[in-house]
Write a structure and sequence with these properties.
five-stranded antiparallel beta sheet; about 20% strand; rod-shaped
Length: about 625
């Protein structure tokens, strides 16, 4: 038996060539695939060389090691490793999982066309092939595999026109859903025996029947090969021991970024050639560019609609609106965009004040104890450095049942107008796009609020006295005139600080101003909301009391006179004259002023520090 086997091997060059020629003929005539013809080659080698075991490895470019393509064995204990590191000298310990007994083996490195490499392992029980015959076996096997791989590459080259046609189809589509459908049709055509998935890095509302998953970029990079491929931009391969398959991850690269990863699951005994990897890389690149094009188109549509929305919003604010009207418009727009569970508006005018004012249009949550506590914390956080808050996990930082938040300070120039807060109970409810739109709207609203605030300040400056903060005489006259036209009755009280010149002479004008402010503060404290306290001129001050009789006003006049006499420093006294008007008498503003002034003159003439009515 040994002699016969050796003689067969000695004539192996010619006979092996004939065997390989028959296999090549079968390959082309029967349309066998690469894996099938390699398996048949190993069966013929096993019979031909009377080998106990034949194993064939192919070099994997991505993992830089030899991977087992197929193994034929008659001995269960001769289990080989699935992966072998490239080495200048191979020993049987590298091949077998468990150290074998007395066996002989030949490890034959193979080099084919297209820079492809392989290892052929032949295991014998009692004899080895002679060196000359081994060289012939290596030579003929390399020729055979070169023909097979060249033919397979030729088949692959036929797919490049297919890629061109696919690119025309993909780039004619503008909706991502249509693009995904075309991609999977193409994958079914090119890789009918493989499984595949698109792992996308962005949120996509797509048909759930398609094999599309979200690429979780928060995964540990050391654990996720898909994330590694996404970040590196290179095709990576990972062996899956449980499913006896290889997972290939091809990044979907566009010109402006990477949009996900194409994951392919292939049997472990199938290893892609360099050309096949090149084709896969081009397919993934084409997919990435198509997704990028659709994303840019959708983003441009979104940007146009957003700009239109913001412009329309800005037009609404261009009118001369008060704070409550601006807030109402802003609230309605926010609700229409993202429908938050809660929305709060916090305003303040004095940048040094620590007190906050909750706008009445805020939802009820902000009026609760919990809402006020959260508002105070957010207010202090954002006021310190104008920080914008955008989070989908709020309960991790604060004690609250709400998870998603948008909190944007309302700053204009150096003026801090307040804070807008949006809350929702769902985690990560607000998208970043929503956040940016809300931010733009609040910027426009802040500008409108600043204008309303400055308009209010200007109006207040016109109608108030800068020293006392009381209304001006002009404003008082206008209000009395309006009240005479629309009301039924009213009273004007005119006060004068007695001997005021002596205060200025003795203490100076600065103290004189302080005395006027003290008297003005007493009058403010004694004035109801509808009553108007004003500075008449110099040391003269007035209060107008609408819908009041003269007798009713005398009590208030006496209280003011008494409070001034007992509460000023240095001590001063007041003289007061009062006069009333009624609708039935058809009075005029001038006549009312004349009568009131005469009453004040009488108070002065009768000894000062008293109230006289006329």
């Amino acid at each position: 038996m040994i002699l016969n086997k050796v003689m067969i091997v000695e004539n192996s060059g010619k006979e092996l060539r004939e065997i390989y020629q028959e296999l090549i003929a079968d390959f082309f005539s029967q349309s066998l695939d690469e894996n099938q013809i390699i398996k048949q080659m190993m069966i013929e080698l096993s019979h031909y060389a009377n080998a106990l075991q034949v194993a064939f490895y192919r070099f994997d470019l991505t993992q830089q090691m030899y991977q087992l393509n197929n193994c034929l064995t008659e001995e269960k204990h001769l289990k080989v490793n699935h992966s072998i590191l490239k080495h200048y000298e191979y020993k049987k310990e590298m091949i077998f999982i468990h150290r074998p007994g007395a066996v002989n083996l030949e490890i034959i490195p193979l080099s084919m066309n297209n820079d492809m490499e392989g290892l052929l392992v032949l295991v014998f029980s009692d004899n080895k092939i002679k060196k000359g015959n081994l060289a012939d076996l290596k030579k003929e096997t390399e020729k055979f595999l070169s023909v097979i791989y060249f033919a397979d590459s030729d088949k692959l080259n036929r797919f490049y026109p297919f890629l061109y046609e696919l690119s025309l189809t993909l780039f004619s589509k503008y909706e991502r859903q249509q693009i995904f459908s075309e991609i999977f049709k193409a994958l079914e055509t090119v890789y009918p025996d493989f499984s595949y998935y698109l792992l996308l890095a962005q949120d996509n509302e797509i048909d759930l029947s398609l094999p599309i998953q979200t690429l979780n970029l928060r995964d540990d990079i050391n654990k996720s090969m898909a994330v590694k491929a996404f970040i590196s931009g290179e095709i990576l391969t990972q062996a899956n021991e449980q499913s006896d398959a290889n997972h290939i991850y091809a990044p979907l690269n566009g010109k402006q970024g990477t949009y996900g990863v194409l994951k392919m699951v292939i049997p472990r005994n199938i290893h892609l050639s360099k050309m096949q990897y090149s084709f896969l890389k081009e397919f993934a690149r084409l997919t990435g560019m198509a997704i990028e094009k659709a994303s840019l188109y959708e983003n441009s549509k979104y940007q146009v609609s957003t700009m239109t929305l913001i412009n329309e919003f800005a037009k609404k604010l261009n009118a001369n609106l008060e704070l409550i009207e601006i807030t109402k418009i802003l609230k309605n727009e926010i609700i229409s965009i993202c429908d938050p569970s809660e929305i709060g508006f916090i305003y303040f005018n004095d940048t040094s004040s620590k007190e906050i004012t909750l706008e009445e249009l805020s939802t009820d949550y902000f009026k609760t104890d919990e809402g006020r506590k959260l508002t105070s914390k957010l207010f202090n956080r954002t006021r310190k450095d104008s920080e914008l808050i955008f989070s989908g996990n709020l309960s991790k930082e604060y004690e609250t049942n709400y998870e998603s938040i948008i909190a944007i300070p309302m700053n204009h120039s150096d003026l801090n107008q307040g804070l807008t807060i949006l809350l929702h109970k769902k985690k990560y409810y607000f998208t970043f796009e929503t956040f940016k739109v809300i931010e733009a709207m609040i910027q426009h609203a802040t500008f409108a609020i600043a204008n309303a605030y400055l308009k209010g300040k200007l109006h207040k400056a016109v109608i108030t006295d800068y020293l006392t903060g009381l209304y001006s005489r002009n404003f008082l006259e206008e209000r009395i005139k309006e009240d005479m036209e629309n009301g039924d009755k009213g009273v004007l009280l005119l006060f004068d600080i007695d001997d005021f010149k002596k205060v200025n002479d003795q203490y100076g004008n600065h103290v004189g101003d302080e005395v006027i402010k003290q008297v003005a503060n007493v009058m403010k404290s004694m004035s109801r909301h509808e009553e108007i306290a004003a500075r008449w001129g110099g040391e003269e001050l007035a209060i107008y009391l609408p819908n009041t009789t003269l007798d009713e006003s005398m009590d208030k006049a006496e209280m003011i006179r008494t409070m001034v006499e007992t509460g000023t420093n240095p001590k001063v006294t007041l003289s007061c004259g009062g006069s009333a008007w009624t609708k039935r008498n058809k009075d005029t503003v001038i006549n009312l002023f004349v009568r009131t002034d005469q009453a004040l003159y009488d108070a002065k003439r009768l000894g000062k520090n008293r109230v006289i009515k006329n």
